[in-house]
């Protein structure tokens, strides 16, 4: 259970959740993520480090650029299930 709690703790941060959502759509470099989120490269790098440590994202280098993607399909399923749950809860609360 500790591992599961840690996973949800990492994803509980809104910026990290947004990064994971973006990466569920496509591979992105740090600078593109920062632009989309309207934040600094330094801030994005910090959050990506946390996500990398938790094995949620992986990276590859292409020259000076570093590109990130989700580590595996399990991460995509977790995010999609989370969105489905939130959307279902929102619909039933009306």
TrEMBL record:
User: What protein does this entry describe?
Assistant: ArsR family transcriptional regulator
Query: What stretch or stretches form a coiled coil here?
Result: none
What are the alphabetically sorted keywords of the record?
Answer: Cadmium resistance, DNA-binding, Transcription, Transcription regulation
Q: Which NCBIfam families match?
A: HTH_metalloreg
Answer whether the UniProt record assigns the keyword Transcription to this protein: yes
Please name the InterPro entries in this protein's record. Answer: ArsR-like_HTH, ArsR_HTH, HTH_ArsR_DNA-bd_dom, Metal_resp_trans_reg, WH-like_DNA-bd_sf, WH_DNA-bd_sf
Which CDD domains does UniProt cross-reference here? HTH_ARSR (cd00090)
Which residue ranges does the record assign to the HTH arsR-type domain?
Answer: 1-90
PROSITE patterns attached to this UniProt entry: HTH_ARSR_1, HTH_ARSR_2
Looking up SMART domains in the UniProt record yields: HTH_ARSR (SM00418)
A biological process (GO) of this protein is:
response to cadmium ion
């Amino acid at each position: 259970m500790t591992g599961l709690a840690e996973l949800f703790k990492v994803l509980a941060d809104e910026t990290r959740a947004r990064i994971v959502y973006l990466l569920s759509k496509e591979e992105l470099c740090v600078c593109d993520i920062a632009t989309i989120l309207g934040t600094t490269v330094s801030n994005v790098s910090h959050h990506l480090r946390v996500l990398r440590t938790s094995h949620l994202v992986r990276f590859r280098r292409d020259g000076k650029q570093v590109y990130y993607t989700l580590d595996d399909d399990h991460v995509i399923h977790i995010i999609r299930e989370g969105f489905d749950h939130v959307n279902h809860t929102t619909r039933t609360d009306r």
